[in-house]
Amino acid sequence: MCNQAVSLIAAELERQGISTVAIQLLREVAERVRPPRALCVPFRHGYPLGSPNNATEQHAVIDAALRLIEDTNGTPPVLVDYVEH
Question: Per residue in 4-17, pLDDT tens?
Fold first, then answer.
């Protein structure tokens, strides 16, 4: 799905009271469109959770994204770069 479209949909869902986190492959798009919360990942297009068949890495990305919802200190937009472990 288009990085820009995901950000715009996330913003509308947040206005409706639903918390969101966008996993972004293109940080520059997230900076321009400003979704409420975005985890910017360093992976190739088509692989937003990392390497295929690497459940450990994929779970780490999902955990990092969900932690953005738990963090109530940040005021939207919150853009965080994912750091690979």
Answer: 888 889 989 999 99
39: three-class secondary structure by DSSP:
strand
Domain boundaries, the chain: 3-81
Q: How far from 10 is each of 16, 35, 38, 41, 55, CA to CA, in Å?
A: 10, 6, 9, 17, 26
Query: To the nearest 10°, the Cα dihedral for 66, 70, 76, 81?
Result: -50
Q: Which bin fits 46, alpha (ψ -120 to 50), beta or left (φ > 0)?
A: left
Q: What is the DSSP letter of 24?
A: E
Query: Is 0.85 topped by the overall pTM?
Result: yes
The length of the chain is: 85
